[in-house]
Each structure stands twice: as C-alpha cells, then as structure tokens.
Amino acid sequence: MEIVALAVASAPRPAGMAALYALLIAAHPRRVLAAYILAGFAFSACLGIAVVAIFNGTHVSYGNTVADELIELTAGAAALGFAAGVASGRAQLPAVDRAGGSQAAMIERLRSPSVATAALAGIATHLPGLFYIVALNRIIADGNDLTEDVGLVLLFNVIWFAAAIAAVVYFLIRPGAARRAMLRVSEWTRVHARATTIVVFGVMGAYLAGKGVVGLVD
C-alpha cells in the first residue's frame, strides 16, 4: 500500500531520534515522553484529518486523472531533485549538533525538559514533509468516504510514530537497555543521515515519478 510506504519513508528523521534519546535520559522521562508522543501525534493526525475532511466535504475525486498523475510526477521529481542535491552537496541536511541551529537548540533544551517543551519537540520533529503531503493527496484523490480517509490518516501516523512508541514501551520494560539502544540508533541515524536521505528520497522519488509518467502515457 502506497500510504504505508510513504509513512515508512517519513520515519528516519535524525532530529526525532536525537530528541527521543534526550527525553529517555531526562529526570522524569515518563511524563515528558508521553507529552512528546501525544502532542506530536495529535498535531500531525489532526492536521491530516482536517485536510481530508475539507476536501471530502467538497466531494473532490480526481484519482487516475491527469491532475493526479501530474501531482505524483511533480512530487517524485522534487524527491529525486532533493536526493541529487544532497548527494552532490548542493543541498544540506539540518544538523542536530550544529551550534546555533534551531534543532540543536531544541535538543539542548531537552536536556532538562518540561512537559511543555517535550510537547513542542514532538510537534517540531513531526511537521508534515513531502511524503505526508503526497499521502494526503493519495487519500483525497481516491475519493473514499470520510471514515476511510480518517482511518488512512491515522494509519500513516501510527506507522510514522511506531519507532517512538516502541522505544517508550521498551523503556518501560528495560529502562537501561532502552537508553543504550536509543543512543546507538540516534548516533547511527546522525552519522548515516546523508546516505539514508539519498536512498529514501531516491527510491520514493523514482517510484512516484515513474508512477506519474506511466499514468500520463496510458
């Protein structure tokens, strides 16, 4: 299912992993972890539901039309362009450890987080990106009823937040092991952020652009 693939592609965000690790080592991790996940999930899901509800109310359905194929082709081209830019060095990824950077400042504040700070971090690290926008387009274009649209939006967000939820569950069972595992994951994503971005955006971009071209020539 395209929605699932897009949600999985949205998951590897270094800033999100770094924020999650910072919260795991906080003085009161349970409260701030709950705030991080609930606020981020609520914001992302409610935004998506609002978008599909607005379009559903207008009874818009343009699946398998020229407009639908052009949107996917454009999104695919944008993803491929970003992957190429990162590969060539022309596009820079935001560094979570760069002095003065907004994400670095957020991570620094999470060293002694309040519930409100954790909630804001959950929102900031899960702002809608290209793949979420494409997923919403796919949901709207198919012209399903509102209940199914809402279900698909929730499915996307559950998959998107799955790693964070799994980390929290693991922390509740084995706190020390969870912290060590999250540190390794956070470090791995930071070190391999460039390669991961190139692969994810390259693969998804090729898929979306190819799908758009095939639809236009059929």
Please summarize what this structure is.
The protein has 218 residues and is mostly helical.
Strand residue content: under 5%
Rg over CA atoms: 18 Å
Q: State the shape.
A: globular
Q: What is the total domain count?
A: 1
The count of DSSP E runs of length 2 or more, i.e. the number of strands, is: 0
Number of helical regions: 11
Report the uncertain regions.
97-102
Q: What's the average pLDDT?
A: 85
Q: What summary fits the major beta sheet?
A: none
Order of helices and strands: HHHHHHHHHHH
Structure, explained:
With 218 residues, the protein is mainly alpha-helical. It has one domain. It is 78% helix and 0% strand. The protein has helices at residues 2-10, 14-24, 29-57, 66-88, 102-109, 115-124, 130-141, 146-160, 162-173, 175-191, 193-217. The longest helix has 29 residues, at 29-57. Residues 97-102 have low confidence and may be disordered.
Topology (elements, then pairings):
Elements: H1 2-10, H2 14-24, H3 29-57, H4 66-88, H5 102-109, H6 115-124, H7 130-141, H8 146-160, H9 162-173, H10 175-191, H11 193-217
Primary descriptors:
218 residues, mainly alpha
